[in-house]
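Revision sheet: C-alpha coordinates.
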Amino acid sequence: MNILLYILCALILGISNLSFADSVLKSDLGDQKSVEVTVYNSNIGLVKDTRTIVLPQGKGELHFMDVAASVMPETVHIKPLDPLNSVSILEQNYEYDLINETKLLDKYIGKKIKLLKENPYNNQKETVEAILLSNNSGQVYQVGNEIYLGFDGQKILPQMPENLVAQPTLTWLYNSPTAGKKPVEVSYLTNGLNWKAAYVLVVDESDTKGGLSGWVSLSNNSGATYNNAKLKLVAGQVNRAQDLMAVGRVYAAKAIKMEQDSGSAFTEKSFFEYHIYDLARLTTIKDNENKQVSLLEANDLKVQKEFIVGNSPLSYFFQIYRTNDYKVPVNVFINFKNSKENNLGMPLPAGTIRLYKSDSDKSLQFIGEDNISHTPKDENVRLKIGEAFDVVAERKQTDYKLIANNLHQSSWEVTLRNHKKEDIIVSVLENMESYGQWDIVTSSHGYQKQDVSSVKFNVPVPKDGEVKLTYTVQIRTAY
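Predicted:
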Protein backbone atom coordinates (compact mmCIF):
# COMPACT_ATOMS: atom_id res chain seq x y z
CA MET A 1 0.00 0.00 0.00
CA ASN A 2 2.81 2.41 0.86
CA ILE A 3 4.57 1.54 -2.42
CA LEU A 4 1.42 2.27 -4.44
CA LEU A 5 0.97 5.60 -2.63
CA TYR A 6 4.61 6.51 -3.35
CA ILE A 7 4.20 5.70 -7.07
CA LEU A 8 0.95 7.70 -7.23
CA CYS A 9 2.59 10.75 -5.59
CA ALA A 10 5.54 10.48 -7.97
CA LEU A 11 3.24 10.40 -10.98
CA ILE A 12 1.27 13.41 -9.71
CA LEU A 13 4.49 15.33 -9.03
CA GLY A 14 5.85 14.41 -12.50
CA ILE A 15 2.67 15.53 -14.22
CA SER A 16 2.77 18.78 -12.23
CA ASN A 17 6.40 19.44 -13.20
CA LEU A 18 5.69 18.64 -16.85
CA SER A 19 2.74 21.00 -16.90
CA PHE A 20 4.86 23.74 -15.34
CA ALA A 21 7.69 23.24 -17.86
CA ASP A 22 5.33 23.10 -20.84
CA SER A 23 3.43 26.26 -19.87
CA VAL A 24 4.01 29.43 -21.93
CA LEU A 25 6.13 31.95 -20.02
CA LYS A 26 6.57 35.63 -20.78
CA SER A 27 9.45 38.06 -20.31
CA ASP A 28 8.86 41.80 -20.60
CA LEU A 29 10.59 45.02 -19.57
CA GLY A 30 9.96 44.13 -15.93
CA ASP A 31 12.77 41.56 -16.25
CA GLN A 32 15.15 44.02 -17.90
CA LYS A 33 18.29 44.92 -15.95
CA SER A 34 20.00 47.10 -18.55
CA VAL A 35 19.93 47.95 -22.26
CA GLU A 36 22.66 49.19 -24.57
CA VAL A 37 21.95 50.69 -28.00
CA THR A 38 24.64 51.16 -30.65
CA VAL A 39 23.41 53.25 -33.57
CA TYR A 40 25.09 53.33 -36.99
CA ASN A 41 24.59 56.12 -39.50
CA SER A 42 23.15 53.63 -42.00
CA ASN A 43 19.64 53.20 -40.50
CA ILE A 44 20.48 50.21 -38.30
CA GLY A 45 21.14 49.73 -34.61
CA LEU A 46 22.49 47.01 -32.35
CA VAL A 47 20.42 46.39 -29.22
CA LYS A 48 21.81 44.51 -26.20
CA ASP A 49 18.98 43.68 -23.80
CA THR A 50 20.08 42.17 -20.46
CA ARG A 51 17.33 40.43 -18.46
CA THR A 52 16.97 37.97 -15.60
CA ILE A 53 14.35 35.35 -16.51
CA VAL A 54 12.93 32.77 -14.10
CA LEU A 55 12.56 29.38 -15.83
CA PRO A 56 11.55 25.93 -14.62
CA GLN A 57 13.62 22.85 -15.36
CA GLY A 58 12.99 21.19 -18.70
CA LYS A 59 11.62 22.29 -22.05
CA GLY A 60 9.08 25.02 -22.54
CA GLU A 61 7.96 28.03 -24.54
CA LEU A 62 9.02 31.59 -23.70
CA HIS A 63 7.66 34.78 -25.18
CA PHE A 64 10.47 37.39 -25.17
CA MET A 65 8.45 40.61 -25.47
CA ASP A 66 9.12 44.34 -25.85
CA VAL A 67 11.56 43.94 -28.74
CA ALA A 68 11.88 46.36 -31.66
CA ALA A 69 9.18 46.00 -34.30
CA SER A 70 11.90 46.29 -36.97
CA VAL A 71 14.11 43.58 -35.44
CA MET A 72 16.04 41.36 -37.86
CA PRO A 73 15.16 37.94 -36.39
CA GLU A 74 18.10 36.19 -38.05
CA THR A 75 20.53 38.40 -36.10
CA VAL A 76 19.25 37.49 -32.62
CA HIS A 77 21.95 36.11 -30.32
CA ILE A 78 21.34 34.81 -26.79
CA LYS A 79 24.29 34.88 -24.42
CA PRO A 80 23.91 33.26 -20.95
CA LEU A 81 25.69 35.40 -18.37
CA ASP A 82 25.93 32.69 -15.72
CA PRO A 83 27.44 29.37 -16.92
CA LEU A 84 25.94 27.55 -13.92
CA ASN A 85 22.42 28.70 -14.84
CA SER A 86 22.58 28.45 -18.61
CA VAL A 87 19.65 27.91 -20.96
CA SER A 88 19.65 26.74 -24.57
CA ILE A 89 17.28 27.91 -27.30
CA LEU A 90 16.04 25.07 -29.51
CA GLU A 91 13.80 27.09 -31.84
CA GLN A 92 12.93 30.72 -32.43
CA ASN A 93 9.96 32.37 -34.11
CA TYR A 94 9.33 36.08 -34.61
CA GLU A 95 5.68 37.01 -34.28
CA TYR A 96 4.80 40.40 -35.71
CA ASP A 97 1.22 39.77 -36.84
CA LEU A 98 -0.04 42.51 -34.52
CA ILE A 99 -3.58 42.93 -33.31
CA ASN A 100 -5.83 45.40 -35.14
CA GLU A 101 -9.49 45.47 -36.11
CA THR A 102 -8.96 44.26 -39.66
CA LYS A 103 -6.83 41.26 -38.66
CA LEU A 104 -9.21 40.34 -35.85
CA LEU A 105 -12.18 40.32 -38.22
CA ASP A 106 -10.21 38.37 -40.84
CA LYS A 107 -9.84 35.55 -38.31
CA TYR A 108 -13.64 35.35 -37.97
CA ILE A 109 -14.68 35.21 -41.62
CA GLY A 110 -17.31 32.48 -41.92
CA LYS A 111 -17.84 32.40 -38.16
CA LYS A 112 -20.49 33.70 -35.79
CA ILE A 113 -19.98 37.02 -33.99
CA LYS A 114 -22.32 39.41 -32.17
CA LEU A 115 -23.43 42.84 -33.35
CA LEU A 116 -24.36 45.39 -30.70
CA LYS A 117 -26.43 48.42 -31.68
CA GLU A 118 -27.40 51.20 -29.28
CA ASN A 119 -30.33 53.59 -29.79
CA PRO A 120 -29.20 57.00 -28.49
CA TYR A 121 -32.79 58.25 -28.23
CA ASN A 122 -34.17 55.63 -25.84
CA ASN A 123 -30.82 54.28 -24.52
CA GLN A 124 -31.77 50.75 -25.58
CA LYS A 125 -29.24 48.18 -26.75
CA GLU A 126 -29.89 45.30 -29.10
CA THR A 127 -27.57 42.36 -29.72
CA VAL A 128 -27.94 40.00 -32.66
CA GLU A 129 -25.91 37.06 -33.90
CA ALA A 130 -24.38 37.34 -37.36
CA ILE A 131 -22.03 35.44 -39.63
CA LEU A 132 -19.17 37.54 -41.03
CA LEU A 133 -19.09 36.75 -44.76
CA SER A 134 -16.41 39.20 -45.91
CA ASN A 135 -13.96 41.77 -44.57
CA ASN A 136 -12.70 43.12 -47.88
CA SER A 137 -13.23 46.91 -48.30
CA GLY A 138 -15.93 46.79 -45.67
CA GLN A 139 -17.79 44.02 -43.86
CA VAL A 140 -20.63 41.85 -45.14
CA TYR A 141 -22.81 40.06 -42.56
CA GLN A 142 -25.57 37.47 -42.68
CA VAL A 143 -28.25 37.95 -40.02
CA GLY A 144 -30.84 35.22 -40.33
CA ASN A 145 -31.75 35.14 -44.01
CA GLU A 146 -30.73 38.77 -44.64
CA ILE A 147 -27.42 40.24 -45.81
CA TYR A 148 -26.07 43.37 -44.09
CA LEU A 149 -23.59 45.56 -45.94
CA GLY A 150 -21.66 47.11 -43.08
CA PHE A 151 -22.79 47.80 -39.53
CA ASP A 152 -22.66 51.03 -37.51
CA GLY A 153 -22.59 49.43 -34.09
CA GLN A 154 -19.98 47.45 -32.18
CA LYS A 155 -18.70 44.03 -33.21
CA ILE A 156 -18.27 41.54 -30.37
CA LEU A 157 -15.95 38.56 -30.81
CA PRO A 158 -16.27 35.49 -28.59
CA GLN A 159 -12.52 35.22 -27.85
CA MET A 160 -9.06 36.29 -28.97
CA PRO A 161 -8.04 34.31 -32.06
CA GLU A 162 -4.76 32.46 -32.18
CA ASN A 163 -1.57 33.69 -33.89
CA LEU A 164 -2.16 37.35 -33.12
CA VAL A 165 0.02 39.26 -30.66
CA ALA A 166 -0.35 42.67 -29.07
CA GLN A 167 3.31 43.58 -29.67
CA PRO A 168 6.28 42.18 -31.60
CA THR A 169 7.46 39.06 -29.78
CA LEU A 170 10.32 36.57 -30.04
CA THR A 171 8.94 33.12 -29.26
CA TRP A 172 11.52 30.61 -28.07
CA LEU A 173 11.38 26.89 -27.45
CA TYR A 174 13.95 26.52 -24.69
CA ASN A 175 15.62 23.80 -22.66
CA SER A 176 16.63 24.69 -19.13
CA PRO A 177 18.83 22.07 -17.38
CA THR A 178 18.03 23.62 -13.99
CA ALA A 179 15.26 25.72 -12.53
CA GLY A 180 15.80 29.25 -11.28
CA LYS A 181 16.92 32.70 -12.39
CA LYS A 182 18.64 32.86 -15.77
CA PRO A 183 20.57 36.08 -16.51
CA VAL A 184 20.90 36.45 -20.29
CA GLU A 185 21.99 39.10 -22.78
CA VAL A 186 19.88 39.14 -25.93
CA SER A 187 21.38 41.12 -28.80
CA TYR A 188 19.90 41.83 -32.22
CA LEU A 189 20.10 44.24 -35.13
CA THR A 190 17.12 46.38 -35.96
CA ASN A 191 16.22 48.76 -38.73
CA GLY A 192 14.81 52.19 -37.99
CA LEU A 193 17.64 53.57 -35.85
CA ASN A 194 19.76 56.30 -37.39
CA TRP A 195 21.84 59.31 -36.47
CA LYS A 196 23.60 62.21 -38.12
CA ALA A 197 25.74 65.08 -36.97
CA ALA A 198 24.87 68.76 -37.26
CA TYR A 199 27.22 71.63 -36.47
CA VAL A 200 26.97 75.36 -35.82
CA LEU A 201 29.99 77.56 -36.55
CA VAL A 202 29.79 81.17 -35.34
CA VAL A 203 32.50 83.37 -36.88
CA ASP A 204 33.70 86.62 -35.33
CA GLU A 205 33.61 90.12 -36.80
CA SER A 206 36.97 89.73 -38.55
CA ASP A 207 36.15 86.27 -39.99
CA THR A 208 39.37 84.90 -38.46
CA LYS A 209 38.03 83.04 -35.41
CA GLY A 210 34.96 81.05 -34.56
CA GLY A 211 33.21 78.78 -32.13
CA LEU A 212 32.08 75.33 -33.25
CA SER A 213 29.34 73.33 -31.55
CA GLY A 214 28.24 69.89 -32.69
CA TRP A 215 24.99 68.05 -32.11
CA VAL A 216 23.93 64.48 -32.69
CA SER A 217 20.45 64.09 -34.14
CA LEU A 218 19.22 60.60 -33.26
CA SER A 219 16.00 59.21 -34.79
CA ASN A 220 14.22 56.12 -33.51
CA ASN A 221 11.61 54.51 -35.74
CA SER A 222 12.45 50.93 -34.76
CA GLY A 223 9.15 50.26 -32.98
CA ALA A 224 10.53 50.12 -29.43
CA THR A 225 11.44 52.46 -26.57
CA TYR A 226 14.80 52.01 -24.85
CA ASN A 227 14.63 53.23 -21.25
CA ASN A 228 17.78 54.39 -19.47
CA ALA A 229 19.92 53.05 -22.29
CA LYS A 230 23.66 53.18 -22.66
CA LEU A 231 24.07 54.94 -26.02
CA LYS A 232 26.92 54.44 -28.48
CA LEU A 233 27.22 55.92 -31.97
CA VAL A 234 29.38 54.47 -34.73
CA ALA A 235 30.65 56.80 -37.47
CA GLY A 236 31.80 55.22 -40.73
CA GLN A 237 30.51 53.35 -43.74
CA VAL A 238 29.60 49.82 -42.63
CA ASN A 239 29.10 47.44 -45.55
CA ARG A 240 25.84 45.47 -45.54
CA ALA A 241 25.04 42.46 -47.72
CA GLN A 242 21.98 42.82 -49.92
CA ASP A 243 19.33 40.16 -49.39
CA LEU A 244 17.59 40.01 -52.77
CA MET A 245 14.88 37.69 -51.43
CA ALA A 246 14.02 39.76 -48.39
CA VAL A 247 10.54 41.17 -48.09
CA GLY A 248 10.45 44.42 -46.15
CA ARG A 249 7.76 45.29 -43.65
CA VAL A 250 6.39 48.84 -43.57
CA TYR A 251 5.43 50.34 -40.23
CA ALA A 252 3.22 53.39 -39.89
CA ALA A 253 5.11 56.49 -38.79
CA LYS A 254 3.78 58.58 -35.93
CA ALA A 255 4.38 62.22 -35.21
CA ILE A 256 8.01 62.87 -34.30
CA LYS A 257 8.65 64.32 -30.88
CA MET A 258 11.57 66.72 -30.57
CA GLU A 259 13.74 66.75 -27.48
CA GLN A 260 17.07 68.36 -26.71
CA ASP A 261 19.57 67.18 -24.13
CA SER A 262 22.27 69.71 -23.35
CA GLY A 263 25.17 69.63 -20.93
CA SER A 264 26.25 66.15 -21.98
CA ALA A 265 29.35 64.93 -23.74
CA PHE A 266 30.54 61.97 -25.79
CA THR A 267 33.89 60.29 -25.42
CA GLU A 268 35.42 59.25 -28.72
CA LYS A 269 37.64 56.29 -29.51
CA SER A 270 38.72 54.45 -32.63
CA PHE A 271 37.26 51.00 -33.30
CA PHE A 272 38.30 48.81 -36.23
CA GLU A 273 38.04 51.22 -39.22
CA TYR A 274 35.37 53.35 -37.57
CA HIS A 275 34.98 55.70 -34.63
CA ILE A 276 32.69 55.15 -31.62
CA TYR A 277 31.12 58.02 -29.70
CA ASP A 278 30.06 56.90 -26.22
CA LEU A 279 27.54 58.99 -24.28
CA ALA A 280 28.77 59.41 -20.70
CA ARG A 281 25.32 59.02 -19.17
CA LEU A 282 22.19 56.93 -19.63
CA THR A 283 19.42 58.27 -21.83
CA THR A 284 15.91 57.20 -22.82
CA ILE A 285 15.30 56.79 -26.55
CA LYS A 286 11.56 56.86 -27.18
CA ASP A 287 9.91 55.27 -30.18
CA ASN A 288 9.13 57.72 -33.01
CA GLU A 289 11.36 60.35 -31.41
CA ASN A 290 14.06 62.64 -32.75
CA LYS A 291 16.55 63.39 -29.98
CA GLN A 292 19.39 65.90 -30.08
CA VAL A 293 22.41 65.39 -27.84
CA SER A 294 25.45 67.65 -27.50
CA LEU A 295 28.53 66.24 -29.25
CA LEU A 296 31.28 68.84 -28.90
CA GLU A 297 32.16 72.46 -28.11
CA ALA A 298 35.27 74.18 -29.51
CA ASN A 299 36.08 77.87 -28.97
CA ASP A 300 38.75 80.20 -30.40
CA LEU A 301 38.90 78.19 -33.59
CA LYS A 302 41.15 79.80 -36.20
CA VAL A 303 39.31 80.13 -39.50
CA GLN A 304 40.24 81.58 -42.87
CA LYS A 305 37.95 83.17 -45.45
CA GLU A 306 38.71 82.64 -49.13
CA PHE A 307 37.42 84.39 -52.26
CA ILE A 308 37.74 82.06 -55.24
CA VAL A 309 37.04 82.64 -58.93
CA GLY A 310 36.94 79.56 -61.14
CA ASN A 311 36.56 79.07 -64.88
CA SER A 312 35.08 76.45 -67.14
CA PRO A 313 37.18 74.24 -69.45
CA LEU A 314 37.15 74.00 -73.27
CA SER A 315 37.77 77.72 -73.87
CA TYR A 316 41.45 77.74 -74.89
CA PHE A 317 41.14 76.10 -78.32
CA PHE A 318 39.07 78.67 -80.20
CA GLN A 319 38.25 82.33 -80.34
CA ILE A 320 35.33 83.47 -78.19
CA TYR A 321 33.03 86.04 -79.76
CA ARG A 322 31.42 88.09 -77.03
CA THR A 323 30.59 91.81 -77.05
CA ASN A 324 30.51 92.25 -73.25
CA ASP A 325 32.80 91.05 -70.52
CA TYR A 326 31.76 87.74 -69.00
CA LYS A 327 30.96 88.02 -65.29
CA VAL A 328 31.84 85.02 -63.19
CA PRO A 329 30.79 84.38 -59.58
CA VAL A 330 33.19 84.95 -56.71
CA ASN A 331 32.65 82.05 -54.33
CA VAL A 332 33.25 82.42 -50.59
CA PHE A 333 34.80 79.61 -48.54
CA ILE A 334 35.59 79.22 -44.84
CA ASN A 335 38.47 76.90 -43.96
CA PHE A 336 39.77 75.56 -40.66
CA LYS A 337 42.00 72.74 -39.50
CA ASN A 338 40.65 69.97 -37.31
CA SER A 339 43.68 69.84 -35.01
CA LYS A 340 44.42 69.95 -31.31
CA GLU A 341 46.51 73.10 -31.86
CA ASN A 342 43.34 74.68 -33.24
CA ASN A 343 41.34 73.73 -30.11
CA LEU A 344 39.64 70.84 -31.91
CA GLY A 345 41.34 67.60 -33.04
CA MET A 346 38.31 65.31 -32.64
CA PRO A 347 37.23 63.04 -35.52
CA LEU A 348 34.19 64.80 -36.98
CA PRO A 349 31.29 62.61 -38.17
CA ALA A 350 29.74 63.51 -41.50
CA GLY A 351 27.05 66.15 -41.29
CA THR A 352 25.99 69.69 -42.10
CA ILE A 353 27.81 72.76 -40.77
CA ARG A 354 25.69 75.91 -40.60
CA LEU A 355 27.47 79.23 -40.22
CA TYR A 356 26.33 82.33 -38.34
CA LYS A 357 27.72 85.79 -37.73
CA SER A 358 26.59 88.77 -35.66
CA ASP A 359 25.47 91.86 -37.56
CA SER A 360 26.02 95.49 -36.46
CA ASP A 361 23.15 95.12 -33.97
CA LYS A 362 24.86 92.12 -32.35
CA SER A 363 22.09 89.92 -33.73
CA LEU A 364 23.17 86.50 -34.99
CA GLN A 365 22.43 85.92 -38.69
CA PHE A 366 22.66 82.82 -40.88
CA ILE A 367 25.33 83.18 -43.59
CA GLY A 368 25.45 79.73 -45.25
CA GLU A 369 25.91 76.00 -44.84
CA ASP A 370 27.79 73.09 -46.35
CA ASN A 371 28.15 69.35 -45.83
CA ILE A 372 31.30 67.61 -44.64
CA SER A 373 32.28 63.98 -44.96
CA HIS A 374 33.80 61.97 -42.09
CA THR A 375 36.86 64.06 -41.21
CA PRO A 376 39.74 62.60 -39.18
CA LYS A 377 41.82 64.74 -36.87
CA ASP A 378 44.55 66.95 -38.38
CA GLU A 379 42.62 67.25 -41.65
CA ASN A 380 41.36 70.50 -43.19
CA VAL A 381 37.67 71.38 -43.38
CA ARG A 382 36.59 73.51 -46.34
CA LEU A 383 33.09 74.97 -46.47
CA LYS A 384 31.46 76.75 -49.40
CA ILE A 385 29.34 79.52 -47.91
CA GLY A 386 27.92 81.33 -50.93
CA GLU A 387 28.82 84.05 -53.42
CA ALA A 388 30.34 87.44 -52.59
CA PHE A 389 28.07 90.45 -53.12
CA ASP A 390 30.72 93.21 -53.05
CA VAL A 391 33.42 91.45 -55.06
CA VAL A 392 33.00 91.39 -58.84
CA ALA A 393 34.96 89.32 -61.36
CA GLU A 394 34.87 89.62 -65.15
CA ARG A 395 36.81 87.43 -67.55
CA LYS A 396 37.43 88.05 -71.23
CA GLN A 397 39.62 86.64 -73.96
CA THR A 398 41.91 89.36 -75.34
CA ASP A 399 43.67 87.37 -78.07
CA TYR A 400 43.72 83.98 -79.77
CA LYS A 401 46.15 82.48 -82.28
CA LEU A 402 46.38 79.10 -83.91
CA ILE A 403 50.16 78.92 -84.19
CA ALA A 404 50.17 75.38 -85.62
CA ASN A 405 47.63 72.61 -86.15
CA ASN A 406 48.21 71.38 -82.60
CA LEU A 407 49.43 74.59 -80.92
CA HIS A 408 46.93 77.12 -79.52
CA GLN A 409 47.79 80.43 -77.90
CA SER A 410 45.17 82.33 -75.90
CA SER A 411 45.39 85.57 -73.89
CA TRP A 412 43.05 86.39 -71.01
CA GLU A 413 42.15 89.24 -68.73
CA VAL A 414 40.36 88.82 -65.39
CA THR A 415 39.15 92.09 -63.84
CA LEU A 416 38.59 92.06 -60.09
CA ARG A 417 36.73 94.87 -58.29
CA ASN A 418 36.54 95.05 -54.51
CA HIS A 419 33.74 97.21 -53.07
CA LYS A 420 34.36 96.08 -49.50
CA LYS A 421 35.82 98.24 -46.72
CA GLU A 422 38.95 96.12 -46.35
CA ASP A 423 41.69 94.76 -48.59
CA ILE A 424 41.23 91.17 -49.73
CA ILE A 425 43.00 88.45 -51.70
CA VAL A 426 41.08 86.80 -54.53
CA SER A 427 42.22 83.40 -55.74
CA VAL A 428 41.69 82.88 -59.48
CA LEU A 429 41.67 79.22 -60.54
CA GLU A 430 42.25 78.58 -64.22
CA ASN A 431 41.74 75.15 -65.81
CA MET A 432 44.27 74.57 -68.62
CA GLU A 433 42.90 71.22 -69.86
CA SER A 434 44.24 67.89 -68.70
CA TYR A 435 44.64 66.40 -72.20
CA GLY A 436 47.12 68.97 -73.57
CA GLN A 437 50.62 70.18 -72.72
CA TRP A 438 50.34 73.78 -71.57
CA ASP A 439 52.69 76.59 -70.66
CA ILE A 440 51.99 80.10 -69.39
CA VAL A 441 54.02 82.43 -71.61
CA THR A 442 53.39 85.68 -69.74
CA SER A 443 51.39 86.73 -66.67
CA SER A 444 50.89 89.88 -64.64
CA HIS A 445 50.88 87.99 -61.33
CA GLY A 446 52.63 84.98 -59.92
CA TYR A 447 50.86 81.62 -59.90
CA GLN A 448 50.99 78.16 -58.36
CA LYS A 449 50.46 74.97 -60.29
CA GLN A 450 47.67 73.06 -58.53
CA ASP A 451 47.73 69.86 -60.58
CA VAL A 452 48.29 68.64 -64.12
CA SER A 453 45.57 70.88 -65.53
CA SER A 454 45.13 73.97 -63.35
CA VAL A 455 46.91 76.98 -61.84
CA LYS A 456 46.04 79.37 -59.04
CA PHE A 457 46.68 83.13 -59.04
CA ASN A 458 46.47 84.88 -55.64
CA VAL A 459 45.60 88.47 -56.50
CA PRO A 460 45.58 91.20 -53.81
CA VAL A 461 42.71 93.64 -54.38
CA PRO A 462 42.59 96.83 -52.29
CA LYS A 463 39.36 98.14 -50.79
CA ASP A 464 37.27 100.10 -53.31
CA GLY A 465 39.90 99.17 -55.89
CA GLU A 466 40.27 97.33 -59.18
CA VAL A 467 42.99 94.94 -60.35
CA LYS A 468 43.45 93.30 -63.73
CA LEU A 469 45.02 89.87 -63.96
CA THR A 470 46.40 89.09 -67.44
CA TYR A 471 48.10 86.00 -68.78
CA THR A 472 48.88 84.21 -72.06
CA VAL A 473 48.92 80.43 -72.29
CA GLN A 474 50.05 78.07 -75.04
CA ILE A 475 48.46 74.61 -75.22
CA ARG A 476 49.87 71.84 -77.42
CA THR A 477 47.60 68.92 -78.19
CA ALA A 478 48.57 65.43 -79.33
CA TYR A 479 46.85 65.78 -82.71
